[in-house]
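Example S7 (C-alpha cells).
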C-alpha cells in the first residue's frame, strides 16, 4: 500500500486537527462547520494501519475482536483499517473521528503520521496507574518506542514484531550433498555454503543466497542509524556502514548469484537460502505445497553472534485526543497478557512476550508451520535500535534499498561511493524539508 500523502494535504489536515476537528465538505460554496461526531461512552475506536493482515475483518476479529468481547463484555469495538481512498489518517482527522487506539509500524510511520498530526500521547502515567510490567516485553521492542524522542517518553506498546528467519530449500542442499544450515550460524559460515550451492546446470541457475537489501540495511544487526544523532543530516559514509554493505555485497558477487526477489523462493524453486519475514512460512507453503523447505535463525556477524535484526515492530498507540484513555490502556494491557500472547502466538503472530509458553505455542494453529523449526524465530536476542536523536531534528525515511539497487546492482558503484551518495541525498532531502517547514511557520505567523 502507498501510504504517503502530499505535504500540502498533511498541513491542511494538521491545521484541521489543531482547529478542533472541524472540516469543510468538498465542493461547498460556504464554509460549513461539521460537528465532531460523539461516539457512545462504551465504544472504543481502533484504527489499524499495520499489521496489514487486519485489512481482513475476520482476521482482526479472530486475533483481537473475539478476545476483547469476552474480556470487556460491556464495550463495543469499532474497527477501521487503513484504506486508500477514504480511510486514511487525514480522512479520519478531517471527519473529526480520531481513533482511541492506533496500530502502526513504529519505524516507518509513527514520526510521519502520529507525530506529524499531533496524535501522540505519553502513556507513562497509565503504566504506573495500572502497574503494567513493561519488563516482561522484549526490551529492544520497547526501546524502539522510547528512542523516538530524547526524553525517553513511551508513546505506545509493541504488538507484533514481523521478524526474519533464513529459509532453505532442502532439495537443493540434498542435490549437491551440502549439509543443512543450523541455528546460530554466522554470515561467514553461510557465505561458504552459498558459494558451494551457486551453480549453473543446463538452463537452471541455482542461487546460493538471496535477501532484500533494504530490509537488511534498515534493520541491520549492528544497530546503526542512517541519520546523524546530533545534526539534521544523513550519516552513512562510515566504516561501520561499509562493513555492513560489504558483508552482503560479497554474496551478490558470487558468480551467478545475482539476487532475485526472495518471493521467487517458492515459485521458481532455484534459491537455496533466502532471508525473509516469518509470515513467509505460510505464504511459501501456499504458493508451492511441494516445496521441501525449513527455516533456521538469520545469520549474524561474528562479532555480534546470535543477534536478530532490529525490531520490525507494529505497535499500539493511544491518541492524545481520545476521551477514553484509561479504557484504551486496559485493552492494550489485556492484549499483552500472557493469556492472549499465547493465543496470538498460536496464530503465527510474533508477540513481544517471549516466555517459554509463548515460544512453545508459536504456530500451533497453522498447519503450514507444522514440522518447521519455529524455535529458530526466538534464537538469540533482538538487536537494539539506535539511540534517540537530539531534540528538534527532522526525521527522514532514508531510502536504504537504493544503496544496493540501483547504485551497486545496476551502476556498479563501490560501497563507499554508494553510501556517500545516499547520505548526500538524505541530507539534501532534510534541508529541503526544513526550508518548507520554515515557510509554513512563517506563513502561519502572518
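Recovered sequence:
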Amino acid at each position: 500500500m502507498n501510504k504517503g500523502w502530499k505535504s500540502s494535504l498533511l498541513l491542511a489536515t494538521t491545521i484541521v486537527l489543531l482547529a478542533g476537528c472541524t472540516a469543510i465538505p468538498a465542493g461547498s460554496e460556504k464554509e460549513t462547520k461539521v460537528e465532531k461526531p460523539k461516539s457512545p461512552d462504551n465504544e472504543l475506536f481502533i484504527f489499524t494501519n499495520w499489521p496489514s493482515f487486519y485489512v481482513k475483518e475476520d482476521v482482526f476479529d479472530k486475533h483481537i475482536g473475539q478476545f476483547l468481547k469476552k474480556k470487556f463484555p460491556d464495550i463495543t469495538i469499532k474497527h477501521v483499517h487503513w484504506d486508500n481512498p477514504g480511510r486514511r489518517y487525514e480522512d479520519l482527522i478531517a471527519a473529526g473521528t480520531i481513533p482511541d487506539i492506533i496500530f502502526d509500524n513504529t519505524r516507518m510511520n509513527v514520526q510521519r503520521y502520529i507525530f506529524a498530526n499531533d496524535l501522540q500521547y505519553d502513556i507513562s502515567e497509565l503504566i504506573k496507574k495500572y502497574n503494567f510490567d513493561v519488563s516482561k516485553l522484549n526490551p529492544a521492542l520497547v526501546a524502539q518506542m522510547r528512542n523516538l524522542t530524547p526524553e525517553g517518553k513511551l508513546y505506545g506498546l509493541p504488538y507484533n514484531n514481523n521478524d526474519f528467519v533464513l529459509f532453505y530449500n532442502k532439495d537443493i542442499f540434498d542435490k549437491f550433498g551440502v549439509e543443512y544450515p543450523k541455528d546460530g550460524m554466522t554470515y561467514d559460515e553461510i557465505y561458504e555454503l552459498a558459494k558451494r550451492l551457486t551453480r549453473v546446470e543446463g538452463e537452471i541457475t541455482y542461487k546460493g543466497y538471496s535477501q532484500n537489501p533494504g530490509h537488511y540495511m534498515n534493520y541491520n544487526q549492528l544497530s546503526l542509524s542512517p541519520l546523524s544523532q546530533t545534526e539534521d543530516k544523513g550519516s552513512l559514509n562510515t566504516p561501520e556502514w561499509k562493513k555492513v554493505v560489504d558483508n552482503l555485497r560479497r554474496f551478490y558477487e558470487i558468480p551467478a548469484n545475482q539476487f532475485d526477489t526472495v518471493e521467487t523462493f517458492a515459485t521458481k524453486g532455484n534459491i537455496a537460502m533466502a532471508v525473509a519475514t516469518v509470515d513467509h512460512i505460510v505464504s511459501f507453503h501456499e504458493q508451492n505445497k511441494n516445496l521441501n523447505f525449513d527455516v533456521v535463525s538469520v545469520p549474524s556477524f561474528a562479532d555480534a553472534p546470535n543477534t536478530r535484526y532490529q525490531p520490525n515492530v507494529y505497535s499500539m498507540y493511544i491518541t492524545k485526543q481520545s476521551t477514553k484513555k484509561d479504557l484504551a490502556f486496559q485493552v492494550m494491557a489485556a492484549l499483552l497478557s500472557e493469556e492472549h500472547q499465547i493465543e496470538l502466538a498460536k496464530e503465527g503472530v510474533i508477540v513481544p512476550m517471549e516466555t517459554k509458553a509463548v515460544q512453545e505455542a508459536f504456530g500451533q494453529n497453522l498447519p503450514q508451520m507444522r514440522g518447521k523449526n519455529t524455535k529458530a524465530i526466538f534464537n538469540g536476542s533482538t538487536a537494539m535500535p539506535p539511540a534517540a536523536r537530539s531534540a528538534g531534528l527532522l526525521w527522514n525515511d532514508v531510502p536504504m534499498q537504493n544503496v544496493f539497487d540501483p547504485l551497486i546492482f545496476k551502476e556498479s558503484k563501490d560501497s563507499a561511493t554508494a553510501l556517500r551518495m545516499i547520505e548526500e541525498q538524505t541530507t539534501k532531502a532534510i534541508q529541503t524539508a526544513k526550508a518548507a517547514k520554515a515557510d509554513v511557520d512563517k506563513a502561519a505567523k502572518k
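Notes on this example. Residues 1-36 have pLDDT under 50 and may be disordered.
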